[in-house]
Amino acid sequence: MSDDSETADSDEVEIDGTRGFSTNFENADLGDEESNQGLFDDLLSGEPIFENKEVLRPSYTPHELPHRSDQINKMATILVAALRGETPSNILIYGKTGTGKTASAKFVSKELESTSQKYSVPCDVEYINCEVTDTQYRVLAQLANKFIEKNENRIDEQLATLESLLDTLDEYDATVDARNPHGANADDQSNDQAASDPFEVALEDATESQTNVSSGDETESESGGSPPEAEGYSGSSESKSTLPSTEPDSTPVDGTGDAAASDSTALPPDHPLESTPFESREGVEARIEELEADRESFEEVPMTGWPTDRVYSVFFDAVDYDERVVVIMLDEIDKLVEKSGDDTLYNLSRMNSELENSRVSIIGISNDLKFTDFLDPRVKSSLGEEEIVFPPYDANQLRDILEHRSNVAFKDGALSEDVIPLCAAFAAQEHGDARRALDLLRTAGELAERSQAETIVEEHVRQAQDKIELDRVVEVVRTLPTQSKLVLFAIILLEKNGVHSINTGEVFNIYKRLCEEIDADVLTQRRVTDLISELDMLGIVNAVVVSKGRYGRTKEISLSVPLEETEAVLLSDSRLSDIDDVQPFIQARFEN
Question: Which domain holds residue 16?
Answer without folding.
Answer: 2-45
